[in-house]
Amino acid sequence: MTTYDERANLTDLTTTAERVRGSVERVIEGKPEVVRIALTVLLAEGHLLIEDVPGVGKTMLAKALARSIDCSVRRIQFTPDLLPSDITGVSVFDQQRKDFEFKPGAIFAQIVIGDEINRASPKTQSALLESMEERQVTTDGQTYALPDPFMVVATQNPVEMEGTYPLPEAQRDRFMARVSMGYPSLEAELRMLDVHGGVPPLDDLQPVAHAHDIVKLIDAVRSVHVAESVRRYTVELVQATRSHPDLRLGASPRASLHLLRAAKAAAALGGRDYALPDDVQALAVPVLAHRLLPTAQAQLNRRTAEQVVQEILQRTPVPTSPVSVAADRRVPPYPQGGPVYAPGARRP
């Protein structure tokens, strides 16, 4: 049964998320879907990889999201000479205390912006693995917890690959979602020239939410209900990637967990305390595609991981009964006055 407190939390969530979304969109013109996914990843306790060509606003999106929330922010410029200790921290000998003192690195912030992450060596990239998965740092036998909320927003340029190090699969798998900014439309680019032509767009951006607000909203997302049929649908989508003939590496069990968490966050942002197959379908490509490795033949045929995920979505049976999805929450079986059908599902 949905309690009054849960409804209040969801109301607070949508109101706060709308303020953050509006703040980010003041800087990022014409990309509402990208901003929505960034907010979804934040509330789902994930990390975001922004991959696109130079100059389309990758770092600007990360900075705008960070500045819209009143929390600690650190930016790491990944370069070939960056060391793991620059990220995690280092123990320094204190002459007065006659003992080593730990100096936290740049990872000790609530939102960490990793710019051009693929320009650092694999050794340095691996310094993020424990932080992103376990939200802690272990050095010199001591473990230090990272603050809440904690999110890594990394950018990389997929075109200029000279002098870069491709992210290992273990690193890519820790990013909940990958988005591409894409070029803006003509109208959006004209608005960008009018609004941002004279003053840097981030100068006037003020926080519209506090870190403790985000922590409360994350707790509200955790309480979103997911029916057995939706959980099974999520796992079936992920397992289909492991047997697809065009893929030599499918998605991991971590991908199932990330897809489920993202669907719960998307449902909460939509004002619902239960997830639908539509939420899973809408996030399948950004959550799964970057984890998949196409076969050599698929690459020769110009088959992308995104196309494979779309094909799997079309082939996997969708639970089309909203009654089974919402029954455990005792909500009306047809929200907003009508039945809910997943894209591509048969209508009666």
Structure description:
By secondary structure, the chain is of the alpha/beta class. It contains 15 helices and 13 strands. The strands form five sheets. The protein has a five-stranded parallel beta sheet. A two-stranded parallel ribbon has the order 2-11. Strands 4-5 form a two-stranded antiparallel ribbon. A hairpin with a 2-residue loop joins strand 7 (136-139) and strand 8 (142-145). Helix 1 (4-25) packs across helix 2, helix 10 (228-242) packs parallel to helix 12 and helix 12 packs antiparallel against helix 14. The longest helix has 22 residues, at 4-25. The chain is globular, with a radius of gyration of 21 Å. The model is unreliable at 1-8 and 330-348 (pLDDT under 50).
Order of helices and strands: HHEHEEHEEEHHEEEHEHEHHEHHEHHH
Number of helices: 15
Strand % is 5-15%
Total number of β-strand segments? 13
Overall 3D form: globular
List strands and helices in order, with pairings:
Blueprint lengths: L3 H22 L6 H12 L4 E4 L6 H10 L1 E2 L2 E5 L6 H5 E6 L4 E6 L6 E5 L6 H4 L3 H6 L1 E4 L2 E4 L5 E6 L12 H4 L4 E3 L6 H11 L12 E2 H12 L5 H15 L4 E3 L3 H17 L7 H12 L4 E2 L1 H5 L4 H11 L6 H5 L22
Parallel strand pairs: 1-9, 1-10, 2-11, 3-6, 6-9
Antiparallel strand pairs: 4-5, 7-8, 12-13
Keywords:
15% strand; 13 strands; disordered C terminus; globular; disordered N terminus; five-stranded parallel sheet; two-stranded parallel sheet; 348 residues; alpha/beta
